[in-house]
Amino acid sequence: MQKIFSLEGKNAVVVGGAGGIGQAIAQGLAEAGAKVAIASRSVDSLQRAVLEIKEACGLEVKYYTVDAAVESSVEALVVESVKDFGKVDILVNAQGFNKKFNAEDFPMDSFKQMFDVNVIGVMMCCKHFGKHMIQNGYGKMVNLSSVRGRIATKGPGNAGYCGTKGALDMMTRQLASEFGKYNITVNAIGPTITETPMMTDILNSRGPNARKDLAESLPMKRMALPTDCVGPAIFLCSDASGFVTGNIIYPDGGLTAIG
Ligand SMILES: NC(=O)C1=CN([C@@H]2O[C@H](COP(=O)(O)OP(=O)(O)OC[C@H]3O[C@@H](n4cnc5c(N)ncnc54)[C@H](O)[C@@H]3O)[C@@H](O)[C@H]2O)C=CC1
Ligand SMILES: O=C(O)C(=O)C[C@H](O)C(=O)CO
């Protein structure tokens, strides 16, 4: 691997790293040379992910439990990971979920829960890891947004999710604006629908042709995989992106080009 893409000597925490896109990114960062920890709510899923990463690439990753929607839990994650690693250079926020309801029936508690995790949870991680990175004079933050932060769905149900990802995009730009002077970059990755646990039920509910139709609708004529986010993540976590901040990269098979 070219040296500017190497993550040797860097320590990374991937929140929401026990499955789906976060787990793929955690493995990718480890393979690029970083020491990696994944953080999520369930010990079982964390231990399963640690094992899967070890089996896939032979590398060990640490794990921490965190509820990223609870500020004291995020503060504890920062304290623990800094104690274990000495410093944290890279933060990936891959936590998030989607609950779909028609707008006219949207239960407001579900709407708020999405904001608690997808926006406020990300802000709390950027805030508390940000304090630590400011002291270190170095940091790379990557937030998992979505094409849904930029283009709405044709069908109903996504008012809450689109709202959270649009807010996340703008928050990412503002954090980039504030943290730039501390040598901290803040960027986002905006995938299109990707085959992960978050999307399984949604895709199954759309019938047997859902995946084929989805693939056909994209210029690149295939469905997105969690690994499609790995290259963008390594770029945004490495010195290769030294002067890139406040940006969103779309591993979307061309959807936003035609959307
Ligand atoms: N799968 C997809 O089609 C797309 C996903 N995304 C975004 O990518 C990110 C990852 O999504 P997926 O891998 O698909 O989902 P996933 O459900 O496979 O993974 C999300 C992870 O976040 C964790 N998490 C949720 N709430 C948390 C909390 N309060 N504290 C700590 N961890 C929490 C979950 O336990 C899970 O491990 C999310 O932000 C999602 O919105 C964006 C575009 C497309
Ligand atoms: O686009 C949809 O339909 C969705 O369900 C949104 C997904 O949850 C998503 O994250 C696509 O980016």
UniProtKB/TrEMBL annotation:
InterPro entries: NAD(P)-bd_dom_sf (IPR036291), SDR_fam (IPR002347). The keyword Cell membrane does not apply. PANTHER family: SHORT-CHAIN DEHYDROGENASE_REDUCTASE, SHORT-CHAIN DEHYDROGENASES/REDUCTASES FAMILY MEMBER. The keyword Oxidoreductase applies. This is 2-dehydro-3-deoxy-D-gluconate 5-dehydrogenase. It comes from Sporomusa silvacetica DSM 10669. Pfam families: adh_short_C2 (PF13561). Keywords: Oxidoreductase. Its EC number is 1.1.1.127. GO terms for molecular function: 2-dehydro-3-deoxy-D-gluconate 5-dehydrogenase activity. It is an enzyme of class 1 (oxidoreductase). Belongs to the short-chain dehydrogenases/reductases (SDR) family.
